[in-house]
Design goal:
By secondary structure, the protein is of the alpha/beta class. It has 2 domains: 160 residues, no CATH class; 83 residues, no CATH class. The chain is built from 5 helices and 9 strands, in the order E-H-H-E-E-E-E-E-E-H-E-E-H-H. The longest helix is centred in the N-terminal third of the chain and has 39 residues. The chain starts with a strand and ends with a helix.
Length: 252
């Protein structure tokens, strides 16, 4: 099995947002820890404990001071830790895991795998497999801990911990397959290669659609092998498809 990989860098805006979130999280934790140390390990809070019977003003100042000492440091620490967790989830979501390179032993030499392709028009193809059946476009799915979905509505956790709507992976995979089909048809008008759409996920709540299959991780190799061979996909046409895919990967 051949592997063609192109790894474009993450968008600058995404990296900057994650960096800002990480810096803010560190500052919150550091400031919270410093305030907690000052309030607990130094005698400064003892000055707000009046000797004898306190006046109303002294009692009010003491309550405010101790409230600040308890609430503010702990609040900063909690918010900082929450932002750290949100940043880690965002980093995980920015790096969808490629599954096809793991199939090197399961697929024969007549299969070619390509990852992170950007075809003309700017559409990014997460993964595809070229085999006797034609081409299977595999859409990317965010990690379970960084996304949630109800029906066709999907959301991913952003750098600030907010849920951001995204295109449903099944719909995106379908559109990716359509773009791939149209691009290849323009290159060779005498032959129309079959292009399938699928996503790989072990989430049983994700249901297949008429245009996109859902394949479990451990069943991907068997599912690919079960696809019927496409008539007319000769070795010469297959090599032409490989050349076209390589040219796109090399241009990144």
């Amino acid at each position: 099995m051949q592997v063609i990989a192109a790894a474009p860098p993450a968008p600058r805006t995404s990296r900057v947002a994650v960096l800002r979130s990480a810096v803010a999280a560190v500052l919150l934790i550091v400031v919270g820890a410093m305030l907690a140390y000052v309030c607990v390990a130094t005698p400064i809070m003892g000055t707000f404990v009046p000797a004898g019977r306190p006046s109303a003003m002294q009692a009010a100042v003491g309550i405010l001071a101790w409230g600040f000492a308890i609430v503010v440091p702990s609040g900063l620490l909690i918010i900082g830790v929450a932002k750290v967790l949100g940043t880690l989830e965002s980093l995980t979501a920015m790096r969808p895991d490629a599954v096809t390179p793991r199939l090197a032993r399961a697929l024969g030499p007549d299969h070619v795998v390509a990852t992170n392709l950007v075809i003309p028009g700017g559409r990014r193809i997460h993964e595809l497999v070229l085999g006797p059946f034609g081409i299977v476009v595999l859409g990317d799915v965010p990690p379970p801990g960084a996304c949630r979905h109800v029906g066709s509505r999907w959301e991913v956790r952003g750098a600030r911990g907010r849920w951001i709507p995204i295109e449903a992976p099944l719909d995106r995979a379908t559109r990716d397959a359509e773009r791939m089909r149209g691009w290849l048809a323009a290159d060779d008008r005498d032959f129309l290669v079959k292009v399938y759409a699928a996503i790989v996920s072990d989430d049983e709540q994700i249901m297949r659609t008429p245009t996109c299959a859902v394949v479990r991780t451990g069943e991907l190799a068997a599912w690919l092998e079960a696809l019927p061979p496409q008539r007319g996909l000769t070795p010469a046409r297959r090599e032409r498809l490989v050349e076209v895919i390589r040219s796109v990967a090399a241009s990144r």
